[in-house]
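Researcher: I'd like a candidate sequence for this fold, 47 residues long. If you have to choose between options at a position, lean toward the conservative one.
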């Protein structure tokens, strides 16, 4: 199964904005791990 490119870009942009991680590191994350960081960034941001 492939992951929708739009969703991948959204997750990567969100994490890059909040954590300032390099693109290569963000793309190396497995999908569940990336989603966990998205959830944590949202929690820290009060969303």
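Model: Candidate sequence:
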């Amino acid at each position: 199964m492939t992951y929708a490119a739009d969703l991948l870009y959204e997750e990567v942009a969100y994490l890059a904005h909040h954590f300032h991680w390099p693109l290569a590191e963000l793309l190396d994350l497995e999908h569940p791990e990336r989603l966990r960081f998205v959830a944590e960034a949202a929690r820290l941001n009060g969303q």
